[in-house]
């Protein structure tokens, strides 16, 4: 997957840890959560150092370059970059706090290939209804309208508390509860009794809202499951209602649009790194953390694979998964109950990736940026090799491929069993055979999306990534997408740990999986590590 990083980008130049091996806060990992945390800490005038094992920042959102083709390695479906104010996307709020922006192209649709047929699915309050009527039927339209009528009013309550206002201590009573209680109360009163009743379900599975409305249409139920799975890694019976309600407000309100960074998803990472450096923060690449140092029961720094010790005066923040963080800790420093809970947390499966570079003439003329292929609803959207997502960002982006070329990323979204790959030698014939076999579903999806002009043999670049690739480049335990925590059965842990001065952010913590969620998790840690007065000043500065 990530074979070679893009040509040097000034904002991503790395510092040498040995020159100053200490900081107020050391952040392990440069995923979006870790970068958001570090950016805000730098904005708060904290001396922060981000340590990244890879040769490029971004974690699952990093980009890489092969023969002039700039590939995304992870998320490519974005919205809310241009939003501002209390209800803005958490990532947009962090970028705003750092004085950074990400120029984007806007669009409002993606191609869908499902057992019922294929159609251009459009976001917005009315366009998707037209799609439903044309391709599914009037019954589906009525049920979808019923869902929107119930969910959109609730979204006011779900979005009344800006994620940037949350912190992990009692100061939250000032920065969140006290500051935004009036607007939250106003939104609840405006909902009326039925809406207020729905708002009580925000911390419950989204399926409970769907069930309470009596929605029965198979396509509508399957579509809801698909959206939940793509955003949260679980179907509607496990997705947190608050997260899905937020998404519905983003995608199905008047005037809404999807966005893609003009310079690729790596531009998001570049913007965050620029913000960190602007305020005096540091990023060290190729700096693999081997151990978190514990002294007198407190996290005091880290030891790198090189043997270098890096001291943290105030805190260590891990942007690694909960399982990888546990592996960094001395066994005798971790309470047994915490260790058992982490080990018992179920995991989402891993990914297969297909990265292609090819001539524009090798695809249909009306090619769109995003395509979703569902082979069989009966297998479930979380079924093995059943759903393939395809992104062709060069349709909208600038300079992502050589002139006259396209760049494509296809993947199976967290449904590839790691057990099929575990223990295989990446140089073996067996591994190559399995790569060919398990990538076929992506090739077929690409052929469907790109049309009869597409030829595998004519591709300039062909890269297949497996769960072992995912594990190797992203340092993810078993190459996992993240915790498979179902709302109503368990909750994502908070950012604090049983070890004083050790915090976590990213998709192993509240609010969970997804770009807005991990951005919020990083912000929560940063806010917690500074006084309430500084936190409140920042909220005033960004106008929320």
Automatic annotation (TrEMBL):
| Any GO molecular function | flavin adenine dinucleotide binding
Q: Name one Pfam family in it.
A: Amino_oxidase
Signal peptide segment:
none
* An example Gene Ontology biological process: carotenoid metabolic process
Q: Which InterPro entries match?
A: Amino_oxidase (IPR002937), CrtISO-like (IPR045892), FAD/NAD-bd_sf (IPR036188)
Task: Report domain Amine oxidase positions.
Answer: 32-528
Q: What's the protein called, per UniProt? A: Amine oxidase domain-containing protein
Which organism was this protein described from? Oryza brachyantha (malo sina)
List the top taxonomic levels of the source: Eukaryota, Viridiplantae, Streptophyta, Embryophyta, Tracheophyta
